[in-house]
Amino acid sequence: MASEAKKETTSSPEKALSEIKSNFIDSNTILVQRTLRAGQKIHFNGNVVILGDVNPGAEVVAAGNIIVMGNVRGVVHAGAEGNTLAMVMAFRLQPIQLRIANHITRPPDEEEMPGSYPEVAHLKDGVVTIEAFSTCGER
Amino acid sequence: MGEVIVVTSGKGGVGKTTTTANLGVGLAALGHKVALIDADIGLRNLDVLLGLENRIVYDLTDVTGGRCRLKQALIKDKHCEGLHLLPASQTKDKTAVSQEEMKKLCQDMAQEFEYVIIDCPAGIEQGFRNAIAGANKAIVVTTPEVAAVRDADRIIGLLEAAELRNPKLVINRFRYKMVQQKDMMSIEDIIDILAVDLLGVVPEDEQVVVSTNKGESVIQDERSRSGQAFRNIVRRIKGEAIPLMNLNQSGMLNKLRRIIGLR
Description:
By secondary structure, chain A is mainly β.
């Protein structure tokens, strides 16, 4: 899925990413300096940055973007108040469920090889799309 | 002041009570003065595992309620010098004790014993909160199952919230063969999620059931593999650096095969 997205040469992904970038600049951000364990929940009206993992059974709900400097294995919900430009970024994205605005997705039932690289999930044409996160090129 | 260690897990049936009994017997066998507290009020089991059921006169709620002295309620183990049990009440429930009472009890017992080990009930409600109230160290027991690891993760979060940091992990009922066939979570998978220090891995062992039913402890069985695992854990609690035992049951056989060139 990720490689497909990278191959696209149309301007739309670039535009989408620049929109994400501008959407990013928001002072309303909290930094969570620990791993969220099962049963722990973060609800925040802005962006959430987590220095740790989001374990199975944990939940992050943010009105803005969610960035996890670790593994996401729990439930993440970005743009919880309807922001369709919100995105979720993680070093390793393996959520039980991923929600952006009012879109709810889950990984396919058949086991996929999880990517061992950072990925970003955002809405593209009304579909939650997961792409490899790269610091050069598209930005 | 002795150490007060709570053995907990969240999920039931993973081996909290078995672990508590074996660690108690193991520490006592090394000459330490050990007390076990059964905090599972209403569903006491620890006395049965130790074979002390018929000696109970007073229990934990009698001590906290002031109906008897601590000395009167403590039962000496029949096999092991230096091991004592404070049994739980069978007729009361978890609300019969408060967190303050447990704290006080643990403090009193830590004066007298080198190790006080608390057998925590399953769940995260009052019984759990009582059991951890007086502890200054925690051991989390889990099995290589998704649900057990999930509950252990929740428990570790709750322990951290209660200022019980750096709990140690015991992985119980581990089956090497199933892990090799990728039918069971590996040690690495579990540590990857829980991110805590590993205290030991106890292999699945039918002998545990046999000795449990007889009111004996598997740790005293020199030939038992799970007993060896518990003996290693006891030494790690004492601060010794013991490497993990070879969990591959046919390890020697495989080695032999390799030597003679069958592999």
